[in-house]
Specification:
By secondary structure, the protein is α/β, with parallel strands linked by helices. The protein has two domains: about 20-40 and about 55-65 and about 85-405, Histone deacetylase domain (Arginase, Chain A, 3-Layer(aba) Sandwich), CATH 3.40.800.20; about 425-679, Rossmann fold, CATH 3.40.50. Helix content is about 35%, strand content about 15%. The chain has helices at about 35-40, 75-85, 105, 115-120, 125-135, 145-165, 195-205, 225-230, 285-300, 325-335, 355-370, 385-395, 425-440, 450-455, 505-510, 530-550, 565-575, 575-580, 600-610, 645-665, 670-679, and strands spanning about 50-55, 95, 170-175, 215, 235-245, 270-275, 305-310, 345-350, 440-445, 460, 470-475, 480, 500, 515-520, 555-560, 585-590, 610-615, 635. The chain has an eight-stranded parallel β-sheet with strand order 2-1-3-8-7-4-5-6, with helices on both faces. Strands 9-10-14-11-15-16-17-18 form an eight-stranded mixed β-sheet, with helices on both faces. The protein has a two-stranded antiparallel ribbon with strand order 12-13. Helix 9 runs parallel beside helix 10. The longest helix has 22 residues, at about 645-665. It is elongated. The two termini are about 60 Å apart. It binds zinc ion. It is found in: Nucleus. Belongs to the histone deacetylase family. HD type 2 subfamily. It catalyses: N(6)-acetyl-L-lysyl-[histone] + H2O = L-lysyl-[histone] + acetate. Its EC number is 3.5.1.98.
């Protein structure tokens, strides 16, 4: 099949014979940037949007010298996309825009001259030199065609952007490679040579009446190069949705790719990172991010043009991204972005390594660019990790964008003379007083200095513990506040805000049955200290040794709810034999937190599997993973989806206590398989 794109005679730019370009900066060749004013009048004659496409089969020449090793950045990527667009009849409806090589003065609006010179030199290197040089960079391969292809790829994106700004087309898709968003100012990186999108954005700003550019990067990887290019530029928004995993996913810069990277100086708030904590994100999560963050900010920013770093490695089936965005999901994101900037929207290919997925995804985007509606999505149900991430992004960015109000409060926002009282401290005081006056529970004196400092008044127990045959060891998160915040600040409307505490329900049930209780309140943490779980585990061990071992009850029930579950599992590991002897039942309700596991040792993990009921919402990410004996006996409960742990406790209360009572009456653990059926 001949994939050549026809020439574009009569288009308002001068074509330059690619091979005749000088190889250093200072060329006398010029690209003719026409004055956008006059050609913009063409827009008035459009009956429907015109969609441009850039493709040049010569971009396939950039290849891996190790021919026996398959590299994911396969030259076929652009061919399969182009074929898909052609075979479905879409190509006939598009305006071909001819790619040309980027000029040094254009590339150097973003890159250094050293970088340009290095790339240029690769055209004449021996194979050994190419391999040696490529190895010095991060995830790069080179051949003698790399420089030409990279210039063509970058120039292609520029030409498409120009065609959009000049009104030749309304929008367009740049089917180009090598990709660009990892390319740093001074070096190639991550399969990228020149930063196509960043260079194109700078060209538009330099030569046209384009002031504000909105760059949306939905490639699965963070676009480190693009972010750096505009980090201090208040007129370019760089917004990236990417897999992050606390900095463990490529490109792996923990600080740069997190939501805390917001831009510098005058440009604070102009870098927006939406970092997924794990793989497995779906259409719902991306649409949620668009609805909550991307589109509100884009409307407030009001860009003159929108450029998408359109990698398709977040697509369903991508071997690297492992996310599940459908072609329709990409179509919807494209559709939303079309509403901005008079519809001036350019999609430039970045990554994407499953040939089938990328061609279907690109086609869905192209159809939307051509004016077709995106196909319908199912109901949007973002997962817990997505909602947590978006919450953090909004907290961080609300200082810079009115649309994300209310503005979140940080202690450094305090005015001189204002007194700060931590609500957790107020809650502790209230709780200690209440637990004693209502239930005669007394705070456990903590002899150890470090434990005392952190956990005073957080561990309480029945005063007559030594008389009890059955003792509940209950470790749970602190009470929640449900607060009515004001519209533009996060100050609380006190008369309409409440503390919600389910723990009292449990304490009353336990004491009502004449059992003893050791109750541990796990305090909230804003920035989770590294040793939080270690400290809490030390407290639990202290309580076990000094209260359980000392009073020697016949039966112990362990209940963990929320973040404390992990430390409770730690206690089980540390006091294994004593626990296997005394504990007749363990209930774990981790909520959205990770599912705790005990040691893999056969006797302990078998005991735990038979003894522990782990109650999880059906949409907990754990269900995608492989369950093991040391995770206990896990039950999937639909009704718990997205519920705060405090509410889960209410929901599970009756079933849980009838299960526990059955065990206490029968004298041993119930068959765990029955439990699963009940839920
Ligand atoms: Zn990528």
């Amino acid at each position: 099949m001949d994939m050549d794109i026809d020439g574009t005679d009569g288009k308002p730019y001068v074509l330059i014979e690619p091979r005749k370009l000088p190889i250093t900066k200072g060329s006398r060749n010029r690209v003719n940037y026409t004055n956008g004013e006059s050609s913009n009048s063409l827009l008035g004659t459009f009956l429907e949007p015109k969609t441009g496409i850039v493709y040049d089969k010569r971009m396939r020449y950039h290849g891996n010298l190790h021919e026996d090793e398959h590299h994911p950045e396969d030259p076929k990527r652009i061919t399969v996309i182009q074929e898909k667009i052609k075979d479905t009849g879409c190509l006939n409806r598009m305006v071909p825009i001819k790619a040309r090589e980027v000029l040094p003065e254009e590339a150097c609006l973003v890159h250094t001259e050293d970088h340009w010179d290095f790339v240029t030199k690769t055209a004449h290197m021996s194979d050994n030199e190419l391999i040696k040089n490529a190895d010095e960079y991060n995830s790069i391969y080179l051949n003698n065609e790399t420089a030409f292809c990279a210039r063509l790829s970058c120039g292609g994106v520029i030409e498409l952007c120009k065609a959009v700004v000049e009104g030749t087309v309304t929008n367009g898709f740049a089917n180009v490679r090598p990709p660009g968003h990892h390319a740093e100012l001074n070096e190639p990186m991550g399969f990228c040579i020149f930063n196509n999108v960043a260079v194109a954005a700078q060209c538009l700003r330099k030569h046209y009446n384009v002031e504000k550019v909105f760059i949306l990067d939905w490639d699965i990887h963070h676009g480190n190069g693009t972010q750096k290019a505009f980090y201090n530029d208040p007129n370019v928004v760089y917004c990236s949705i990417h897999r992050y995993e606390n900095g463990h996913f490529y490109p792996g810069d923990k600080a740069l790719a997190n939501y805390t990277a917001i831009g510098g100086g005058e440009a604070k708030g102009k870098t927006i990172n939406i970092p997924w904590p794990r793989a497995g994100m779906k259409d719902s999560d991306y649409i949620f991010a668009f609805n909550k963050v991307v589109m509100p900010i884009a409307y407030e920013f009001s860009p003159d043009i929108v450029i998408v770093s359109a990698g398709f490695d977040a697509a369903e089936g991508d071997p690297i991204g492992e996310n599940h965005v459908s072609p329709s999901g990409f179509g919807h994101m494209t559709h939303m972005l079309k509403t901005l900037a008079d519809g001036k929207l350019i999609l430039a290919l970045e990554g994407g390594y499953n040939l089938d997925s990328i061609s279907k995804s690109a086609l869905a985007c192209v159809k939307v660019l051509l004016g077709e509606p995106p196909s319908k999505l199912g109901p949007i149900k973002p997962n817990q990790d997505c909602m947590e991430t978006i919450h953090q992004v909004i907290r961080t960015q609300s200082k810079y964008w009115n649309c994300l109000a209310p503005v979140y409060y940080a202690t450094e926002d305090r005015l001189p003379g204002q007194l700060l009282v931590d609500m957790a401290e107020m809650l502790k005081m209230y709780r200690t007083r209440n637990l004693y006056s209502k239930y005669k529970l007394i705070p456990v004196p903590l002899s150890d200095g470090k434990l005392g400092q952190r956990f005073t008044n957080l561990a309480c127990c029945s005063g007559d513990l030594f008389r009890k045959e059955v003792v509940f060891f209950f470790v749970h998160d602190m009470a929640d506040f449900r607060a009515d915040t004001r519209a533009t600040s996060n100050s609380i409307n006190v008369s309409n805000s409440y503390m919600i505490d389910t723990v009292y329900l449990y304490i009353e049930t336990i004491l009502g049955n004449e059992h003893g209780i050791i109750d541990v309140d796990v305090p909230p943490v804003v920035n989770q200290p590294k040793n939080e779980n270690q400290d809490l585990k030390d407290l639990l061990i202290f309580l076990w040794d000094n209260l359980i071992e000392a009073t020697n009850p016949k039966k112990v029930i362990l209940i963990g709810a929320g973040r404390g579950c992990r430390s409770l599992a730690g206690l089980i590991n540390e006091r294994d034999y004593s626990i296997m002897e005394k504990v007749v039942c363990t209930i774990m309700i981790p909520g959205p937190n990770e599912v705790p596991s005990v040691s893999k040792r056969t006797d302990l993990s078998t005991w735990y599997h038979n003894n522990a009921n782990v109650l999880l919402p059906a949409n907990h990410p754990f269900w995608d993973k492989k369950m093991k004996r040391e995770h206990g006996s896990c039950s999937k409960i639909e009704d718990l989806n997205n519920m705060p742990v405090q509410d889960m406790l209410v929901h599970l209360h009756n079933d849980m206590f009838s299960h526990i009572n059955q065990i206490l009456v029968n004298g041993g653990p119930a068959n765990s398989s029955n439990e699963e059926g009940n839920n």
